[in-house]
Amino acid sequence: MWYMNEERELIRNVARDFAQKELKPVALQIDKSGEFPLEQFKRAGELGLLGINIPEEYGGLGGDYTTLALVNEEIAKVMPVLTIAMGAHSVLAGELLLMLGTPEQKAKYLAPAATGEIILACAQTEAVGGSNQVEYSCRAVADGDDFVINGTKVLISNIGVADVYIVMTVTGEKIDPATRSGMSAFIVEAGTPGLEIGKPEVKLGWHGSATGSISFKNCRVPKENLLGPLHGGMQALFISSTNEFLTCGPVGLGMAEACYEAALDYSMQRVQCGQSMFDRFQVTRHKLVKMWSDIEALRALVYSVFSMKDQGHLCLAQGRLLKAKGAEVSEAVAREAIQLFGGVGCIVDTGIERFWRDAKVLAIGGASIEALNEQISIMMKNKML
Ligand SMILES: Cc1cc2nc3c(=O)[nH]c(=O)nc-3n(C[C@H](O)[C@H](O)[C@H](O)COP(=O)(O)OP(=O)(O)OC[C@H]3O[C@@H](n4cnc5c(N)ncnc54)[C@H](O)[C@@H]3O)c2cc1C
Do 264 and 367 fall into the same domain? Predict the structure, then answer.
């Protein structure tokens, strides 16, 4: 592959072995139980897979983005939900710490996060709508040596298992997305009085992502827990979110590959009127060709965008494009795979339908495709594409 080199291949192989030997035997069980894959998350930390994007000085591997894509692709082929927990931890929250943290904050929170010693969550969304930031009301107010936080965040991943929450709050008069002002990030440790953690929601897909609400009731954090400049958290959030959107490309790719490979095997083995489905039905072959071609088109897009990212581009529009395409291709391929499996494709134990459920959530969780397209259209108008 044009995007492979020795170092990337080495880490890709670690991720592949981990996925095939340690995740595969438990993936279906995690999906059924909906429990956060804590043991697997910690193991990913031991293997260095939580610190790929984190510099070596903070305990990470200091790898490039292409390596992060390869790891996400391998894990998503087997247990997509682990990539979601990893994305919230290492990319969404981890990169906020990396971009905004003081050396003390990085030593205290980023270094143990890189090895999985502590788990991070990032809380942005409120009930008024994920992209409706102007109407956010979770507010932090200065009071003596502290800030006092009040409000509620919804649909936050890694709740309950997280040791540290990076919380986006209103601190200005209002949040202004145009100037990216009025929002500040705070580090809130689990167990801080006034921080209440809800129960994970039961949902369509991403079973085990521990996604739910957290509330702040006069939750006091010391001023040292302000992450980055006061009112200045939004620009960094825009970048860390973009990087998380980017990773949805290889996640979608991995899910689609898993479904295509399973459907191809099945169609070769399933006998209909004396012949394999593959040999007997042209429509089966053509479905598989379409699945393969959509995957290869996504692969080319993913690794060319990640190569741009490694060359220092922010990939603001491309990150959004990858999230949309990753969700679109994985959902379409998973849907066709279920169809090719027929009745058994609808059975949970076959292990195919869970990819379709996870792919559907990929089109919403983190940001809906429509909201992302809206953002791309603004970049289009401003000639930023
Ligand atoms: C499983 C899961 C995990 C999540 N994890 C986290 C997390 O860790 N941290 C966190 O902060 N959030 C998280 N979220 C929240 C997620 O980011 C939001 O669900 C997402 O941004 C959509 O917002 P919403 O749910 O409020 O839907 P709404 O914003 O109400 O959107 C509903 C629909 O309205 C349309 N729409 C909304 N806004 C626009 C727009 N600007 N332009 C065009 N159409 C629009 C779209 O069709 C959209 O699908 C998670 C969500 C899920 C489902």
Answer: yes
Same domain, 253 and 346: yes
Atom number of ligand 1 nearest to Cα 206: 1
152 lines ligand 1 (CB under 6 A): no
Q: Does residue 1 sit within a domain?
A: no
Q: Among 193, 213, 231, give the residue marking a domain's end.
A: 231
Q: How many domains does the chain have?
A: 3
Which residue puts its alpha carbon closest to atom 42 of ligand 1? 371
DSSP 169: E
Helices in 159-281 by DSSP H: which ranges?
234-269, 277-280
* pLDDT tens-digit map of 123-165: 999 999 999 999 999 999 999 999 999 999 999 999 999 999 9
Q: What is the mean pLDDT of residues 15-35?
A: 98
Amino acid (1-letter code) at residue 295 = I
Instruction: Assess whether 244 carries a catalytic annotation.
Output: yes
pLDDT at 366: 96
Nearest CA to ligand 1 atom 46: 370
Q: Give yes or no for residue 209 CB within 6 A of ligand 1.
A: yes
Q: Which of 244, 257, 331, 336 is catalytic?
A: 244
336 close to 287: Cβ distance less than 8 angstroms: yes
Regarding the beta carbon of 135 and ligand 1, being less than 6 Å apart is answered no
- Same domain? For 42 and 107 the reply is yes
- The residue from 231, 265, 298 where one domain ends is 231
Domain residues for the domain of 278 are: 235-381
The CATH number assigned to the domain holding 263 equals 1.20.140.10
As a whole number of angstroms, the distance between CA 81 and CA 95 comes to 20
Do the beta carbons of residue 241 and residue 62 sit within 8 Å? no
**How far does residue 100's CA lie from ligand 1's centre (Å)?**
24
Token duo for residue 372: 């992302």
**What is the dihedral sign for C-alpha 269, 274, 280, 284?**
negative
Residue with CA at minimum distance from ligand 1 atom 11: 124
127 Cα nearest atom in ligand 1: 26
Residues 128 and 90 in one domain: no
Asked whether residue 342 is assigned to any structural domain, the reply reads yes
On the question of pLDDT at 322 being above 90, the answer is yes
Question: Of all protein residues, whose CA lies closest to atom 23 belonging to ligand 1?
Answer: 130
**CATH code of the domain in which 165 resides:** 2.40.110.10
Looking at the domain assignment, is residue 313 inside a domain?
Answer: yes
Q: Are 260 and 295 in contact (CB under 8 A)?
A: yes
Asked whether residue 58 is assigned to any structural domain, the reply reads yes
